[in-house]
Specification:
The chain is α/β, with parallel strands linked by helices. It has 2 domains: 160 residues, P-loop containing nucleotide triphosphate hydrolases (Rossmann fold, 3-Layer(aba) Sandwich); 119 residues, Zinc Finger, Delta Prime, domain 3, CATH 1.20.272. 55% of the residues lie in helices and 8% in strands. Strands 2-3-4-1-5 form a 5-stranded parallel β-sheet, with helices on both faces. Helix 4 links the parallel strand 2 and strand 3. Helix 2 packs antiparallel against helix 3. Bound molecules: zinc ion (ZN). Zinc ion (ZN) binds next to helix 3.
Length: 338
């Protein structure tokens, strides 16, 4: 059983390529955070090493189990957190890639394939990425390298072009809710709420279920965005400065904040269009309606366009503070004019 949920067609293709021995030696799995990229990479590692001849990955043979438990000697995950000093570092360095190169040339130790997973491949230093390029150009037999990224454009084009690309998009929100009810015995109302907040990212919904603080943090984010959407300009500028600072230390968190804006304004668009049943933030319907009554759909569309623009610009290393201030200036003022 592949553990990745949804994405049936993609799994079918991969499954066939593993069975027929036509798999690639390098994959790039792209998609938003917590959408299932790491799950898919481990699925692939299990499928490649599984001992079952029927259902690969079977999930129950020693190979599958050791990979799932993170104990398999031939499956290695590199990420910012994979080193003890992880919390403070911002790069995956060349020394780690050299280690990968060294191990890649050794025969698998307990399985049939060595699988190296670089989770957050956009964090590789340029030197590290260039070193990895050599391995990607001439991958040893029995080695598969899987790069995971939520910021594809931050990767070297030369690295991207050496990989077979797989894209994971968010699942439909009702499918996330169904999974939580069926596999995590979640109450329907909580499942629906978390699924909406996850925007179809099952990993996020599961973490929020296990760690209620995450939902609380999200709730605070939404309240701030709701307040600032009608707030004074100096409060908005202070916020822009804060997110810009955050962007230097924790890009994922900064992007998550902008995604909260995007969800909020998407909801405003739905409310102005009279499609209330599809909003993400049902609990905030009163504020949404109050704000929507001051706006027309053209104004809302412009803000959404500007938000998407700024998200792109930040990926392309624009000056975050400037980009965010422009965004804040472009928000319609409280009276409804812009
Ligand atoms: Zn197995």
């Amino acid at each position: 059983m592949w553990k990745l949920q949804g994405h049936g067609a993609l799994i079918q293709r991969l499954d066939r390529s593993v069975r027929e021995g036509r798999y690639a030696h390098a994959y790039l799995i792209a998609g938003p955070s917590q959408v299932g990229k790491a799950t898919l990479a481990l699925d692939l590692a299990r499928a490649l090493n599984c001992r079952s001849r029927e259902e690969m990955p079977c999930g129950t043979c020693t190979q599958c189990q050791r990979i799932s438990a993170g104990q398999h000697a031939d499956v290695r995950v590199l990420s910012l957190e994979s080193r003890p000093e992880g919390a403070s570092r911002t790069e995956i360095g060349i020394d780690e890639i050299r280690e990968v190169q060294h191990q890649a040339n050794l025969k698998p130790y307990e399985g049939s394939h060595r699988v190296f997973i670089v989770d957050g491949a956009e964090h590789m230093s340029e030197q590290a990425a260039n070193a990895l390029l050599k391995t990607l150009e001439e991958p040893p037999q029995q080695v598969v390298i899987v790069l995971l990224t939520s910021e594809e454009s931050a990767l070297l084009a030369t690295v991207r072009s050496r990989c077979r690309r797989l894209e994971l998009r968010p699942m439909a929100v009702p499918l996330v809710a169904r999974f939580l009810v069926e596999h995590r015995s979640t109450e329907q109302s909580q499942a629906d709420r978390l699924a909406r907040l996850s925007m179809g990212r099952l990993g996020w919904a599961i973490s929020a279920l296990e760690e209620p603080a995450l939902e609380e943090e999200h709730r605070k984010d939404v309240e701030r965005v709701a307040g600032l959407s009608t707030g004074e300009l100096d409060a908005r500028f202070a916020y822009a400065a804060e997110i810009a600072t955050q962007h230097f230390g924790n890009r994922a968190r900064a992007r998550e904040s902008l995604n909260t804006w995007l969800r909020w304004w998407r909801d405003l668009l739905l409310v102005t269009a009279g499609a209330r049943e599809f909003v993400y933030h049902e609990e905030w319907m009163e504020s949404l309606e109050a704000q929507a009554s001051q706006l027309n759909s053209r104004q809302v569309t412009e803000v959404i366009r500007s938000l998407l623009d700024k998200l792109d610009a930040l990926e392309d290393n624009a000056n975050p503070r400037l980009a965010l201030e422009v965004l804040m200036l472009g928000l319609p003022s409280q009276s409804g004019g812009s």
